[in-house]
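Most newcomers find our protein records easier to grasp once they have seen one. Sequence and backbone structure share a record, each on its own labelled line. Nothing more is needed to start thinking about how sequence determines fold. As an example, a complete record with its sequence and its structure tokens follows.
=====
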Amino acid sequence: MIYADLEKTIGVRIKNRKLLENVFIHRSYLNEHKDSPLPSNERLEFLGDSVLSLITSVYLFRKYHELAEGDYTEIKSSIVKTESLATAAFEIDLGNYLFLSKGEELGGGRSNKNILADCFEALIACIFLDQSFEAAYEFVVKHLFKAKLDYLVENKLYLSAKSKLQELIQGKYKTTPVYKVLEEKGPEHKRIFKIGVFFHDKKLGVGTASSKKEAEEIAARNAFDNINLL
């Protein structure tokens, strides 16, 4: 059986074999196999993304009663991201089972982070549909969270640079840093923002990115290099 090793690794036996096969069909494969009886894994990935979000929320709710809502959001963003999902997918060798086009195969598709992350989410959906929410929950806790999420929470590694900077300044000076747009350029669909972070009119850091949120995060990271200006 082609998926026997995988099922042994994840500790789940999928009853619906077509559903399991569908997990691994990348959209590129269909360009060369238009007669495929199965669609791409994109619908499963979409569902898996939602199930994963709920699993993360339930896990944090069950285990960390003292966290604020903002903390939950930051933790989810830290653990449920492409890099984390791709690493988890790599560790259970999902890339080995992918159906890819020849071009995608030659381009290193089996180790592509985005493809692996999407496949991992599709597998979550497969387990959810074939088994139950609790089975999907146990799979995610075992293969994605493991000790990573607890370590991340206990050491506050989930905090963004912006959150850390605010926590530092607020704790010491009872006020918050101010972010100002210094420059905005480019066409409407491709804006570039340059943002500075200030404390009592002292510029601590500057960040440039295609979104204000990302530029603020970069500015906050840079601010830590100038923390002696406070």
The longest strand covers residues 178-185. The chain has two domains: 4-154, 161-229. The chain is about 55% helix and 10% strand.
